[in-house]
Write a structure and sequence with these properties.
Helices cover 45% and strands 15% of the residues. The protein is built from 24 helices and 24 strands. Strands 11, 14, 15, 16, 19, 20 and 23 form a seven-stranded mixed sheet that branches. Strands 4, 5, 6, 7, 8 and 9 form a six-stranded antiparallel sheet that branches. Strands 2, 17, 18, 21 and 22 form a five-stranded antiparallel sheet that branches. Helix 3 (74-111) runs antiparallel to helix 24, helix 7 runs antiparallel to helix 8 (182-198) and helix 21 (544-551) runs parallel beside helix 22. The longest helix is centred in the N-terminal third of the chain and has 38 residues, at 74-111. It is globular. The relative contact order is 0.12. The model is unreliable at 1-36, 226-237 and 697-704 (pLDDT under 50).
Length: 728
């Protein structure tokens, strides 16, 4: 049994994967025999040749590689080699086909002056181009991006915020490294957020109109295509949370504390003047978003707007970038803006405070933010991975509140709620027109209290009421490749039973993740595990100490991670010499461009300390540490500040963090295997289906449509080859 020592470490802050399993070789085992020493050497040499060619991505040479003999255990290696080459070729054929189709469509659309649609295809082609810089330098792409940039600016001038945001987002994705369109994208994103916050119905209508326009243009460019199901589902207007509820509890003390902590403790040097400029610019954006006049009548008065704008200009003119202001000056500036607002546009004081503060924080980094009183509960639920509820995942589909899946071992699961059930009423109130947020808040509640759900089930003529007692719901973050056939609420962690290769997918680093992982490892070790794949793809991160505790299960020496900031002490987490997983057991870690933060700490430590092989794509590059700080006066509503105070540094001393203009960041895999966006989408669809607990479980392999996962194929092949070498 694995020794438990992680509890104290974490107390701080339809698609089937058609890979080697489809070819029937994941469960293939080397013949149990004792070959002569010469044969052993030949097997090891052959395995090493395959390994080197895969590591160098020399797949054409791998296809040509011949085995030393055509009999005995070598034939099994040859079958693995051939099947892997087949999958890699299939993946590359799909990539090339998708690239050629995207380029052809983009050029055709450009020739017809359909610039918006052409840009969408250019982005798709760029993402899978072998030579991305060269692709951007082609004359037709340069011509298109210039035209699209002009059109994005024109959309913004006309107040077509969503269309402008879409084009600037596309442009930024092409030129992300030199950041030439970053400010434009951020400005339009903030304007869209204002609409969503204060006039959500207007935002909904604008978005609906934009989608309808896209459908019309799509029909023009692709005759005979069917309307998008997304557009159809948006025909049902949702209900909206009132902005008055969102500003409740906001005080000026929260603004003051946030500005002070940022000035003194942010990871890099900043100034009160820079943050004040950000706050004033955010208020100007608010002032120049005409749709907000529907909620704030004062914004409809042209003279009032002009007077308020004049005051903002005067406040901005007083700022001196070469000489910082004092904290008291910031408070005085905001007080003056509040007084001016009362005399002109008459915005609520809380709106001025929120928008100014959010604008000031945006001058720092994407992860520093104020968590306002109305956001605190949801934030804490996400961080802890537990909450009071019944344990179901829900979605809105064509206006119906549908159960995606019950969570294993929860009140809803035990009550008999099933995937696909439609919730028609909550506590006697119809769910017609309900929003997801409203449904979640109605179903969640204090553990021990009851909630009544009326359920309509496919194939049944009558609805049924379920009275369910709420409990503390813990969302599992440790999963396997498929559901356990004997108990569909559990996971099967053994990917290759014959060769004893385990597979564990971690979806986030929560308070209980280390304990969950320990339990999974115990099951695998009891089953005789000889190698392990740790899948951290799409894992956004989580708690630092959870990442350290999990790393400590695998590494027995060296520094796992170091944090260092401007106002914080340098802190080093060192490995404990006693591991939970034997240090001679081969481990592969899968990462991709969506693996971030704590995922990168674990993957980076495994790579730098030579404990595991990293396969996939370069990780996200979220190498900053946020501290949670209460802000505002005691006794007031609770607000928190999420402040970046330090950076992560890997064992080799390198920072994970991606900075503007950087060409290297995050964790670079030992073996880079890329998937196209479409292939990633297919993989996510497969995963979502695997997560669902069906009454009669649908296991991977029972569905018709296929998706490639050559990253997982590579991981399994590399582990098998290493096991062959160690066994021979």
């Amino acid at each position: 049994m694995l020794k438990s020592r992680v509890a104290t470490k974490v107390a701080c802050i339809c698609f089937v994967v058609v890979s080697l399993v489809a070819a029937g070789v994941w469960s293939a085992q080397l013949q149990a025999q004792a070959p002569a020493a010469a044969t052993d050497t030949a097997i090891v040499d052959y395995a090493d040749q395959i390994t080197r060619l895969v590591q160098k991505r020399q797949f054409d040479e791998l296809a040509k590689l011949s085995p030393p003999t055509e009999e005995g255990p070598v034939t099994k290696l040859k079958s693995w080699q051939d099947q892997y080459v087949t999958q890699i070729k299939k993946q590359e054929e799909q990539r090339q086909k998708q690239f050629d189709e995207a380029v052809a469509k983009a050029q055709d659309l450009l020739s017809r002056s359909k610039y918006d649609e052409a840009m969408d295809k250019v982005v798709a082609a760029y993402q899978i181009a072998k030579d991305q810089p060269g692709f951007l330098k082609t004359e037709w792409v340069k011509d298109l991006t210039e035209r699209v940039a002009a059109k994005a600016a024109d959309y913004e001038k006309k107040g077509q915020w969503i269309e402008s945001l879409q084009l600037y987002t596309d442009l930024h994705s092409l030129y992300e490294i030199d950041t030439r369109y970053k400010a434009d994208m951020q400005r339009l994103a903030r304007r869209s957020r204002l609409l969503l916050m204060y006039t959500p119905r207007t935002f909904f209508e604008m978005r609906k109109a934009a989608l309808a326009k896209q459908e019309r243009e799509r029909a023009e460019t692709q005759p005979g295509t069917q309307p998008s199901t997304q557009a159809a589902s948006d025909d049902e207007p949702p209900t909206f949370t009132k902005w008055q509820d969102r500003i409740e509890g906001v005080t000026s003390d929260m603004l003051r504390d946030a500005i002070d902590r940022a000035r003194n403790d942010w990871v890099e040097e900043t100034s009160y003047a820079a943050m004040t400029a950000g706050g004033l610019e955010a208020l100007r954006l608010f002032l120049t978003t005409p749709e907000l006049a529907k909620e704030f009548a004062g914004l409809g008065d042209a003279q009032a707007r002009a007077d308020f704008d004049k005051g903002l200009n005067a406040a901005l003119a007083k700022l001196n970038p070469k000489q910082d202001m004092a904290a008291a000056d910031v408070v005085e500036t905001v007080s003056g803006i509040v007084t001016l607002s009362r005399a002109t546009v008459k915005l609520p004081d809380q709106v001025i405070i929120m928008e100014f503060t959010d604008g000031a924080m945006e001058k720092l980094d994407p992860f520093t933010a104020v968590i306002w009183p109305h956001e605190v509960d949801e934030f804490e639920k996400n961080m802890k991975g537990s909450f009071g509820g019944v344990g179901i995942q829900i979605s809105l589909e064509n206006g119906q509140l549908k159960v995606i899946s019950p969570l294993e071992d929860t009140p809803a699961f035990r009550a008999g709620i099933e995937a696909g059930d439609v919730v028609t009423a909550i506590n006697g109130k119809s769910t017609v027109g309900i929003s997801i947020d409203q449904a979640v808040h109605s179903i969640m509640g204090k553990p021990g209290t009851n909630v009544t759900l009326k359920i309509k089930r496919e194939g049944q003529t009558t609805e049924k009421e379920y009275v369910i007692t709420r409990a503390v719901i813990k969302v599992s973050s440790v999963k396997g490749f498929k559901r356990d056939a004997a108990d569909t609420s559990k996971w099967d962690f053994m990917l290759d039973p014959d060769n004893k290769v385990g597979y564990i997918r971690i979806t986030g680093f929560q308070e209980d993740t280390a304990q969950e992982l320990e339990s999974a490892l115990e099951k695998l070790q009891a089953a005789g595990m000889r190698g392990l794949i740790m899948d951290l793809r799409f894992n956004p991160g989580g708690l630092l100490n959870a990442a350290v505790a999990i790393s400590d299960m695998f590494v027995d020496h060296g520094n796992i991670v170091m944090t260092k900031g401007r106002s914080t002490r340098t802190h080093v987490w060192r490995a404990d010499k006693n591991t939970l997983v034997p240090t001679n057991m081969p481990v592969v870690v899968l990462v991709n461009q969506y693996s971030a933060s704590a995922s990168e700490i674990f993957a980076g430590a495994m790579k730098d300390l030579n404990r595991g092989l990293i396969i996939g794509q370069r990780s996200f590059g979220k190498g900053s540490v946020q501290n949670l700080i209460p802000i505002g006066k005691r006794g007031d509503s609770i607000a928190m500040m999420k402040l970046t105070m330090s950076y992560y540094y890997l064992p080799d001393g390198e920072s994970l963090h991606r900075r503007d203009g950087a060409r290297e960041w995050g964790v670079d895999p030992n073996i880079n295997i890329e998937l196209t966006p479409k292939q990633l989408g297919d993989l996510l669809k497969y995963r979502r289906d695997a997560d669902i607990i069906h009454k009669n479980a649908t296991q991977p392999g029972t569905q018709k449509e296929a998706a490639l996962d050559t990253q997982l194929d590579t991981a399994l092949l590399m582990l098998r080859l290493q096991l062959v070498s160690s066994r021979s």
